[in-house]
Design a protein that fits this description.
Chain A: Residues 106-191 form the Autophagy protein ATG5 UblB domain. The complex is a heterodimer of chains A (197) and B (184). Chain A is mainly alpha-helical. Chain A contains seven helices and three strands. Chain A starts with a helix and ends with a strand. By secondary structure, chain B is α+β, with helices and mostly antiparallel strands. Classes of the chains: A mainly alpha (197), B alpha+beta (184).
């Protein structure tokens, strides 16, 4: 479904050794289940669509809409050609917020679990509480995916993974959004069962 | 600068409820489906439409969901031939009526794309929601000015629906303006 490859790995194969061996099919495309990828334009459009949605959440679309078409192109080309500086020259603007606020309006995130029917959980969630305290990753999970978090004295059932690592649940969500988002500016979070070794 | 008019989730639900009520009255097949796990609320309709050029029958299925990111409704749809073969994005673009073609060609990828349905997880075509506020704001502001009742969903769907083959009977709009108790 046009998911980032790292997300697919975390979600489906995180216990596998690298390199990740995959099987590529050339027949019987599952039309009902998967999106086609007809061209690079399709991927660019999907990427930009995610960027726009992320900015709608973070800044009511103000930052991305103020950019010129060439800035949008630069984001895509920077990603496509693996040019970190070229990408971040524009992306850093999407990571800013007004001085009087303590963070973005809402945090762009999606939580994935293979055990549920729903493809992902995405809700409105503010990075800063009414009293000015920064919300943490743990706060987010408790609010939108309580089954993922172990009860206080219970055994840890799941791993909460972003980019192949398990950030501490006390990490402020605003910080995660600024530093651990994927290029599309979303935090793609995998909830996977705790390995039993 | 004029403030854009968004609709909150509760207003979305209320407008959908009124819309469904009328749908049931006229035998239109919209349904309200509540997802167990969360709060997105699809309603869908199966219509069979002739595609004159190919002389083939195409079945459309439309879903109206609420986007909390953009705080507007979004139209998801899928289309297939009667033998089950799905239409491609290119088929959909080509099928858009002439009068909307110019706008579509200005930015096809910004207008109708294919995405994963957020609840069903299956591929659907989507009418991109990022411009919704641009055209809905004047509609809402004008209706307040002339003190006329407007159901957001009815107005919105009557604007975006025809682009993708969904035409609403006029009775939906008449039902809204007759409904006195909705003035709040």
């Amino acid at each position: 479904m046009h998911y980032p490859i790292g997300l697919l790995f975390d979600l489906l194969a995180s216990s596998s050794a690298l390199p990740w061996n995959i099987t590529v099919h050339f027949k019987s495309f599952p039309e009902k289940d998967l999106l086609h990828c007809p061209s690079k334009d399709a991927i660019e459009a999907h990427f930009m669509s995610c960027m726009k949605e992320a900015d709608a959440l973070k800044h009511k679309s103000q930052v991305i809409n103020e950019m010129q078409k060439k800035d949008h192109k630069q984001l895509w080309m920077g990603l496509q050609n693996d040019r970190f500086d070229q990408f971040w020259a524009i992306n850093r603007k999407l990571m800013e917020y007004p001085a009087e606020e303590n963070g973005f309006r809402y945090i762009p995130f999606r939580i994935y679990q293979t055990t549920t029917e729903r493809p992902f959980i995405q809700k409105l969630f503010r990075p800063v509480a009414a009293d000015g305290q920064l919300h943490t990753l743990g706060d987010l999970l408790k609010e939108v995916c309580p089954s993922a978090v172990a009860p206080e004295d219970g055994e840890k059932k799941n791993q909460v993974m972003i980019h192949g690592i398990e950030p501490m649940l006390e990490t402020p969500l605003q910080w995660l959004s600024e530093h651990l988002s994927y290029p599309d500016n979303f935090l793609h979070i995998s909830i996977i069962p705790q390995p039993t070794d | 600068m004029e403030e854009d008019e968004f609709i909150g989730e509760k207003t979305f639900q209320r407008c959908c409820a009124e819309f469904i009520k009328h749908s049931q009255q006229i035998g239109d097949s919209w349904e309200w489906k509540l997802s167990k796990e969360a709060f997105e609320l699809p309603s869908d309709d199966c219509e069979v439409i002739e595609a004159p050029a190919a002389s083939q029958v195409i079945k459309y299925e439309y879903h109206v969901l609420y986007s909390c990111s953009y705080q507007v409704p979004v139209l998801y749809f899928r289309a297939s031939f009667l033998d089950g073969r799905p239409l491609t994005l290119k088929d959909i673009w080509e099928g858009v009526h002439e009068c909307y073609k110019t706008r579509l060609l200005q930015g096809p990828w910004d207008t109708i794309t294919q995405q994963e349905h957020p609840i069903l997880g299956q591929p659907f075509f989507v009418l991109h929601p990022c411009k919704t506020n641009e055209f809905m704001t004047p509609v809402l502001k004008n209706s307040w000015k002339i003190n006329k009742n407007v159901n957001y969903i009815t107005s919105w769907l009557s604007i975006v629906g025809p682009v993708v083959g969904l035409n609403l009977p006029l009775s939906y709009a008449k039902a809204t303006s007759q409904d006195e108790r909705n003035v709040d």
